[in-house]
Every structure is written in structure tokens, then in C-alpha cells.
Amino acid sequence: MLWETIERVNRLRQKALQDPEFIQSAKAHERAIQHQADCCCVEKRKRSHKAKAKTLADVYKQVEFSDQYDDRHH
């Protein structure tokens, strides 16, 4: 059954490759995909400047820890 499906798909593929309308549509699709890929690459380049990763010291720099917290857990 799988072999028959592969043969059928191959025959349809060969038939499609002989159809000028299909070839034109495939080329238009290829250009659309390339255009989409180009747009994505441009956006990635714009966003490539990443902020410096915060360390835990940076995150907790402004936090004051009370002595009560230390007393309860020792």
C-alpha cells in the first residue's frame, strides 16, 4: 500500500512538472518564501543588540534583607 502511494505521488509530481501553470505558481511561491525569509533576517539583525544579562547581584541590589528573616531560619 505504501509503495502504491509513493508511485502515485511520483506520477502526479511528474505530471505537475510538465504543467507550465504549476511551474509558474511554484516559482511565485519560491519568491514569496524567499521574501519572507529576507524580512525575518532583517528583523533579527535589528533586534540582535541584546541587553546585558542581569546577575543575581544586579537583581537584588536594591532589596534590603531584614535581620528577622535571618533569626527565624537559624
Number of helices: 4
Low-pLDDT segments: none
Distance between the termini: 71 Å
Order of helices and strands: HHHH
Instruction: Provide the β-strand percentage band.
Output: under 5%
What features would you describe in this structure?
The N and C termini lie far apart (71 Å). The chain contains four helices and no strands. 0% of the residues are buried. It is mainly alpha-helical.
Key features?
4 helices, mainly alpha, 74 residues
Quick synopsis:
The protein has 74 residues and is mainly alpha-helical. The chain is 72% helix and 0% strand.
Write the layout of secondary structure elements.
Layout: H1 2-17, H2 20-46, H3 56-59, H4 67-72
